[in-house]
Amino acid sequence: MKIAIKTLGCKVNQSESASIAGELINNDYEIVQSADNADICIINTCTVTAKSDYQSRQLIRKSARSGAKVIVTGCYAQLRPDDLVNMDGVSRVIGNSDKNEIADIISDLHGNGERTTLNVKGTDLPLFKQTYHSTRSRAFLKIQDGCNKACAYCSVRLARGKSRSLSVEDVLSSAVEMEKSGYREIVLTGVHIGSYGHDLDPVSSISDIVDKLSLSSPGTRFRLSSLEPGEINAGLLSLLKRDNICSHLHIPLQSGSDKILKSMNRGYSTTKYKQVINRIIKEYPDIAIGTDVIVGFPGESDKDFQDTYRFVEELPFSYLHVFPYSRRSSTKASHMPDQINGAVKRSRVNSIIELSQNKKLLYLNRYRDRILNVIIESSEITSGNYIAISDNYIKLTVKGNGLFPGDRVRVRVISLTGSKLLAQAFN
Predict the structure, then answer these.
(1) What are the Cα distances from residue 405, in Å, to 13, 182, 245, 380?
(2) Delimiting residues of CATH 3.30.750.210 domain(s) in the chain
(3) 314 near 342, Cβ under 8 Å?
C-alpha cells in the first residue's frame, strides 16, 4: 500500500511526520511523495494561525480529490476535530497523542464512506523513542513536547498539553541511530525545548542534554531550535564553543513594546531581552540570531508598533519571522478589546518584512571571501551546483564536484547576488 505524508507548520510536526514514515516503513508500507500516487494520504496539520487552518483544509480537499483516503492529524485535528470529521474524503481524524498509532489505524481502514473521529483524546501522554525516516539531509529530533507557559495569543499549548521530555537515554540513543543512518546535522526540536528535563527524574536541562549529545556523537552537528531569552545562560553559551554545536540561536521577541509584552504575558521586558542579545554578541560576534515578531496584537498602537520597529532595527538579528496577530479561540487575547483591523496589520507586517530583508543582507555581506562550514542539502539539477546550509544558518549555493547530500565540507564565499551567497568547496 502506498502512503503519502503531507506536513504543515513547525519542526515538531516535521519530526513527527518523519517518525510516522519510519513506523509505516517498518510495517511494510511504501512512502510516496504525491497524493496522486497514494492509496492513503496523511495530513499533519497546524493551527497556529487562521491561515494555517485554511491551508490545512485546502490540502485536505486537494488530497481527497486525488482519490486517496485521507487521515488528518496534528494540532488542528486535536483542537477542532468537528471542523474536519464531515469534510469530503476524510476517513479518520486523529489527535496528537495518537500519531504513533497510525500504522495500526491504517490496517483497520475500510469503506470509502467512513468518517470517524478516532482517538482525539488527552495531550499529556509521556514521550517515548520513535523510529525516523526522512529524505532530508538534516534530522529533526523531538526531545520535548507541550508547554507550561500561558502566552495570551497561543493555542499550541492547548493542542500539545503540559511540558514533557524524552528521557536522556532515549535522546542519546536516537541521535546515535540518526548518525548511523547518515544524518550529519540533528536539529533539537520541541514546543518549548528550554524546559527540557525539568520533569525528568533525575532532573535534567537543555544545557545538560546538549553537552551529553555533543560528547556522545562528536561526528554530528547539533542545532538548537527556539529558546526563550531567560533560558540563555552561561552554561548554554559555553557549549557554542564546541565544533559540533551550531553558531545559531533563535530567540523569540514577539514585540518591542513593554506594554504589549506584558499584555502578551511574555514574562520579560525589552531591557532584559536586549541584555541577553548583547551578552551573546559580545561573546560570539559572528553568531546568527533569529527572532519572531507578532504585529497587530490587540491594543497595539502606532507608538507601540514604532517602538517594536526601532527595537528590532537596533539589534543585530540575522533574520526575522514576522506574523500578523491571528485571533485564536480559547485564548486570552481573543477576548481582548481593541482588536486591530487587517489592513493595519498587513501594513505593519510589510514594514517589518522590509526591515528583515535589510538585516539579512547586512548579515550576508559580512561573509564575502570568508570560509564557512556547511552541510550539503541537495543539488541544483540545472546548474550542477549544490544547495547547502552553514552552521550559522546561511543557505547558499556551492560550486564543487562529487558532493552528496549530507556531506560536511568547507567552502569559501566568492560572491553575493541579491540575497544569495555563492561559494566554492575545497578540501
Answers:
(1) 22, 9, 20, 11
(2) 124-246
(3) no
Averaged pLDDT for residues 210-235: 96
* Percent helix, percent strand, percent coil in the chain, to nearest 5: 35, 25, 40
C-alpha cell at 301: 498602537
Architecture in CATH for domain 371-426? Beta Barrel (2.40)
Q: What single letter denotes the amino acid at residue 134?
A: S
Distance CA 143, CA 174 (A): 10
Q: Enumerate residues 6+ apart whose C-beta is below 8 A from 262.
A: none
The 8 Å CB, 24+ separation contacts for 97-100 are: 97/121, 97/122, 97/123, 97/124, 97/125, 97/161, 98/73, 99/16, 99/19, 99/20, 99/44, 99/73, 100/19, 100/23, 100/128, 100/130
CA dist 424 to 246, 324, 367, 382, 408, Å? 21, 39, 13, 17, 13
**Please, which residues have CB within 8 angstroms of residue 101's CB and are 6 or more apart in sequence?**
94, 119
User: If you search the block for the grid coordinates 524524552, which residue do you land on?
Assistant: 166
User: Which residue intervals of the chain bear CATH 3.40.50.12160?
Assistant: 2-117
- CA dist 193 and 176 (Å) reads 20
Q: Could you tell me the pTM of the whole model?
A: 0.93
Judged by DSSP in three states, 395 sits in strand
Please state, in angstroms and rounded to a whole number, the distance separating the CA atoms of residues 246 and 392.
6
Fold for domain 280-366? Transcription Regulator spoIIAA (3.30.750)
| Measured CA angle at 349 (ends 348, 355), to 5 deg | 95
Least trusted range by pLDDT, from 41-45, 292-296, 399-403 = 399-403
Does pLDDT of 223 surpass 50?
Answer: yes
Domain 2-117 is found in CATH 3.40.50.12160? yes
